Amino acid sequence: xxxxxxxxxxxxxxxxxxxxxxxxxxxxxxxxxxxxxxxxxxxxxxxxxxxxxxxxxxxxxxxxxxxxxxxxxxxxxxxxxxxxxxxxxxxxxxxxxxxxxxxxxxxxxxxxxxxxxxxxxxxxxxxxx
Length: 129
Ligand SMILES: [Zn+2]
Hints:
- The chain is mostly beta strands.
- The chain has one helix and eight strands.
- 7% of the residues lie in helices and 40% in strands.
- Bound molecules: zinc ion (ZN).
- Residues 36, 38-39, 41, 50, 52-53, 55 line the site of zinc ion.
């Protein structure tokens, strides 16, 4: 991945955010999202179309890495390859909410920070704790 379009090593943000670019940035401790050029809605999940106004071609933006746990749930029935359950939650970052893995004992209302990224049988996700 040296001249890949998703490379973020140049300091610039990827023109078009996709899951690979998001994951690459997460590995560097940067959480990327998108801001609609029409209505300004911010999404923490790469989308081609704005969820609010359906405008296309949102711009890539850097999201805050501190937030508050909005909701959380334990995954007890896990994909193959897991020994234990894990917890996921929605972290409210202010402008946007992001689906994340929760570490430590973070519960609803807990202030959390991005601590890394996990890639396993359940997929890749930012980790907040
Ligand atoms: Zn919009």
